[in-house]
Fold:
Amino acid sequence: MNDLHVRPATEADLATLVRLRDAAARWMLAHGITGQWRPGELDEDHFRQVMARGEVWLAEAGGRGVGAWELWWEDEAAWGPQPSVAGYVHRLMVDRSTAAPGTGRLLLEAAERRVAEAGRIRVCLDCLAGNAQLNAYYRDAGYRVVGHKEGKAQPGGAPPKSFTLLEKELSRPTAPGTSRHTD
Structure:
């Protein structure tokens, strides 16, 4: 796992991002997780648009893309108007055929570090309400349920879905000689 490298995605990575998203969607379907992602649902233009208003990060191991996520700086569709204190993680995806176990958690931690580096104090995400396994995964990673969003619009004209809203407070850096704490 020590060869995992995370970097901002570029235009040259668009096909890799689509491949990762479709592989994650196929894995979900093969494991009985329906109603969340479908292969072919998002194309290169989706990721290009996210890069124009947010960030897309790519994880590589052995020179191959093994995971990615989107980082938004606002998400009014799910969270409504909010002060600029959070980063919003979307589409955390791992290619389970090539990534080592634990890669998803490492990517989530990298997203949390990026949010902290941007001076934000909270990481927010939404998770399909009906996906109990994924909701538990995020709770086990230290996220707490703070609400629900019914009928959230989906990219590509897909039918609206209901989501669990989760957040995690980040530790704030403190002055030398003092302890770290979470507000």
Notes: The first helix runs from residue 14 to 30. The radius of gyration is 16 Å. The CA atoms of residues 94 and 104 lie 6 Å apart.
